[in-house]
Specification:
By secondary structure, this protein is an alpha+beta fold. The protein has one domain (about 1-70). The chain has one helix at about 1-15; strands at about 25-30, 35-40, 40-45, 50-55, 60, 65-70. The strands form 2 sheets. It has a 4-stranded antiparallel β-sheet, with helices on one face. A two-stranded antiparallel sheet has the order 5-6. The longest helix is centred in the N-terminal third of the chain and has 16 residues, at about 1-15. It is globular. The chain starts with a helix and ends with a strand.
Length: about 70
């Protein structure tokens, strides 16, 4: 799926762009047909045919991988 590839590229971009080592920076990240808006409390994902919310802060683990805390 193209949207999956775009989301993967966005995730890698977020990891590289993180200004603090443990937190994904706030802002809008997107590409063709996908938008991820990151906030202090989580965020929102919008695709062409779907949307959803992330209800926990987006943090990076010790290996630099994206994870949602609960």
């Amino acid at each position: 799926m193209r949207a999956t590839r775009v989301l993967l590229v966005l995730s890698v971009g977020l990891l590289v762009a993180a200004c603090r080592e443990d937190v994904v920076p706030n802002g809008a990240w997107g590409g063709d047909h996908v938008l991820l808006t990151v906030t202090d409390n989580g965020g929102r994902v919008e695709l062409n045919c779907a949307h959803g919310t992330l209800d926990h802060p987006l943090r990076l683990d010790d290996a630099g991988r994206l994870r949602a805390e609960h």
